[in-house]
């Protein structure tokens, strides 16, 4: 058994891919005060602001690293469904992004709520919305991935939602706090080795 060193200015994570091959039984929609609305053509700035608000605690950075043209091509693609969860005041507090570009498949590309809503049952509602919208397209597979940088309950949540883990990979990337894509104090639970070694 060996250990693989990771550069101090990088972060490493284990990514688990999960899939669902048949539509789960219909259940009552979980109660919530939130509502889900389509975002057919969000502006890159508005999209990134919500992406960052939801994902900074988990070091989400991929869409922050894209140039505006590349991001716009994805989030305006007719094969991508982007949705915002709104609170009663109409403020965006969650995000769902479904990718149907592979025939007969739906990838849940992004799924999340702002940290203040954790543990209140809104995640079950958002997942019910995701699965209803995905399976309504006549697909054969819904899949998602999560990683060890995500919320500690994420993997268990996906499995409890009916997904089966099918593969693991290791990903390393430049720490987005060191590159300036995320604030230096984002994700304090994940130590910054580049700072600690100075």
Give a written overview of the molecule.
The chain is of the alpha+beta class. The chain has one domain: 3-Layer(aba) Sandwich (Aminopeptidase), CATH 3.40.630.30. The protein contains seven helices and seven strands, in the order E-E-H-H-H-E-E-E-H-E-H-E-H-H. The chain has a seven-stranded mixed sheet, with helices on both faces. Strand 5, helix 4 and strand 6 form a beta-alpha-beta unit.
Please give a quick description of this structure:
The chain has seven helices and seven strands; from the N terminus they run E-E-H-H-H-E-E-E-H-E-H-E-H-H. It has 198 residues and is an alpha+beta fold.
Please report the total strand number as a whole number.
7
Overall tally of domains? 1
Distance between the termini: 30 Å
The main pleated sheet reads as: 7 strands, mixed
What would CATH call the architecture?
3-Layer(aba) Sandwich
The overall pLDDT average reads 94
Q: List unreliable stretches of 5+ residues.
A: none
Rg is: 17 Å
Shape: globular
Spatial order of the strands forming the largest sheet: 2-3-4-5-6-1-7
Listing every helix as H and every strand as E from the N terminus to the C terminus, the arrangement reads: EEHHHEEEHEHEHH
- Please report the number of helical segments: 7
Would you tell me which CATH topology applies?
Answer: Aminopeptidase
Secondary structure: helix percent: 25-40%
What is the CATH H-level superfamily? Gcn5-related N-acetyltransferase (GNAT)
* Alpha-beta classification: alpha+beta
Strand content: 25-35%
Query: What's the CATH class, please?
Result: Alpha Beta
């Amino acid at each position: 058994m060996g250990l693989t060193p990771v550069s101090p200015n990088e972060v490493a994570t284990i990514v688990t891919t999960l899939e669902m091959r048949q539509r789960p039984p219909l259940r009552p929609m979980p109660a919530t005060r939130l509502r889900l609305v389509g975002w057919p053509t969000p502006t890159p700035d508005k999209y990134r602001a919500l992406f960052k608000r939801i994902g900074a605690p988990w070091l989400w950075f991929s869409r922050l690293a894209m140039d505006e043209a590349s991001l716009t091509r994805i989030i305006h693609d007719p094969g991508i469904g982007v949705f915002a969860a709104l609170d009663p005041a109409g403020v965006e507090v969650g995000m769902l992004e479904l990718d149907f570009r592979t025939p007969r498949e739906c990838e849940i590309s992004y799924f999340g709520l702002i940290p203040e809503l954790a543990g209140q049952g809104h995640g079950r509602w958002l997942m019910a919305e995701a699965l209803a919208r995905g399976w309504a397209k006549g697909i054969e597979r819904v899949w998602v991935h999560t990683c060890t940088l995500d919320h500690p309950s994420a993997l268990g949540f996906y499995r409890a939602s009916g997904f089966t883990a099918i593969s693991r990979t290791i990903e390393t990337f430049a720490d987005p706090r060191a590159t300036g894509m995320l604030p230096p104090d984002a994700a304090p639970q994940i130590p910054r080795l580049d700072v600690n070694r100075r």
